[in-house]
Design a protein that fits this description.
Layout lengths: L1 H19 L20 H14 L15 H30 L2 H4 L5 H47 L16 H17 L2 H29 L14 H20 L1 H27 L10
Helix pairs in contact: 1-3, 1-5, 2-7, 2-8, 5-6, 7-8, 7-9, 8-9
C-alpha cells in the first residue's frame, strides 16, 4: 500500500508541477557540447545518486525462495519495476528542470524540496517535504523486510554467520533485523547523508560489476549450465554496464577515496568471512548448520 501511495505521490507532483509551475528557459534536446559534461568526475559522482534512485528494482531477486513460480514471476517483476522506476525518475527530473531555475538546484541535495518550494511557495514546499518523508516509509518498510532475509540466507549458507539465520516462531529473522538496525544507527549518527550514499553506492556498484562479470565468466566456464533466463543483448549489454560502473568507480575512488576504501574494506571483510566459513564446512562436512529452534 505504501509503495502505491508513493507512486501516486510522485505522479501527482509531476502533474501539479506541469500544471502550476513556471516554465524555465531550458531545452531537453541534446547538444554536441554536452559530451564534455558526461566524461568527467562531476557526472560520474552524479550517477551515484542516479543509481541509488534506481536501486530497489531488483529487490524481488532477494526473496526468490519465497515467491511462487520464480522463473516466470521474477523476470516479469524486474522488467515492470525497471520500467516504472524509469518513467517516474525521468518525469520527476524533467519537472524539476522545467519548473525550477538551475541555480536554485545547483549543489542542493533536497532538490525535490527546492522545486516544491519554487512551484507551490514556502508553505507548499513544507507540505511537499512532509509528503516526501511519508513516501520514504515504503522504502524503509521494503528494506526492513528484504534486507534481513538476505542476511538470514547468508547465515544458512555460511557457518560463520549462522547466528543470523535464527528465526522466531513466526519465521521472523530477528537477529538479522537487529544487525541491520545496529548498522543503520551507527551510520546515521556518525556520517553525513552524502558520505553514506557514496560508501553504500561504491559497495553496491562494485558488487554489481562483479555479478555481471560473473555472467560472462560462467558462459565460458559452464556453457552447459541450465539458464532459464538469458541476458538480453549478451555480451553487449553486460559490457556496457561494466563500462559505466567502472567509470563511476574510477572517479569515486579518485574523488571520494575514504568512502570508496571503506566500501572496498567491507567487501574484503565479506571475503574473509566466506573463507572462514569454507574452512569450517571442510572441517565438519557431515554437520549441518543450525538455523534456530
Amino acid at each position: 500500500v505504501s509503495t502505491v501511495l508513493k507512486v501516486l505521490l510522485i505522479a501527482g507532483f509531476v502533474v501539479a508541477g506541469l500544471a502550476y509551475g513556471t516554465p524555465q528557459d531550458i531545452s531537453f534536446a541534446p547538444r554536441l557540447e554536452d559530451l564534455q559534461h558526461i566524461t568527467g568526475a562531476p557526472f560520474a559522482i552524479g550517477l551515484v545518486f542516479v543509481m541509488y534512485s534506481y536501486s530497489g528494482w531488483n529487490a524481488s531477486t532477494y526473496i526468490m525462495n519465497e515467491v511462487r513460480e520464480p522463473q516466470r514471476t521474477v523476470p516479469i517483476s524486474l522488467f515492470a519495476a525497471t520500467l516504472i522506476v524509469l518513467l517516474l525518475y525521468v518525469a520527476l527530473n524533467a519537472v524539476f528542470l522545467y519548473t525550477t531555475p538551475m541555480d536554485k538546484m545547483a549543489g542542493q541535495v533536497e532538490v525535490a524540496l527546492v522545486a516544491g518550494t519554487h512551484i507551490f511557495g514556502e508553505q507548499g514546499g513544507r507540505i511537499v517535504g512532509g509528503l516526501i518523508c511519508f513516501g520514504l516509509i515504503s522504502t524503509i518498510s521494503a528494506m526492513t523486510w528484504i534486507g534481513p532475509r538476505v542476511t538470514k540466507v547468508m547465515g544458512e549458507d555460511l557457518p560463520a554467520l549462522a547466528i543470523f539465520a535464527k528465526e522466531t516462531r513466526n519465521g521472523v529473522p530477528a537477529v538479522a533485523i537487529l544487525l541491520q538496525l545496529a548498522i543503520v544507527t551507527v551510520l546515521i549518527f556518525t556520517q553525513s547523508f552524502e558520505s553514506v550514499l557514496d560508501y553504500i553506492q561504491f559497495s553496491l556498484t562494485l558488487s554489481s560489476f562483479l555479478a555481471v562479470l560473473g555472467v560472462i565468466v560462467l558462459r565460458f566456464r559452464q556453457p552447459a549450465l541450465p539458464r532459464p533466463y538469458r541476458s538480453w543483448g549478451y555480451p553487449l549489454t553486460p559490457l556496457v554496464f561494466m563500462g559505466v560502473t567502472g567509470f563511476m568507480m574510477f572517479y569515486l575512488i579518485t574523488d571520494r577515496p575514504l568512502q570508496s576504501l571503506a566500501g572496498l574494506a567491507t567487501l574484503l571483510a565479506g571475503l574473509v568471512v566466506y573463507a572462514l566459513s569454507t574452512r569450517m564446512k571442510a572441517a565438519k562436512p557431515s554437520e549441518g548448520v543450525s538455523i534456530g529452534e
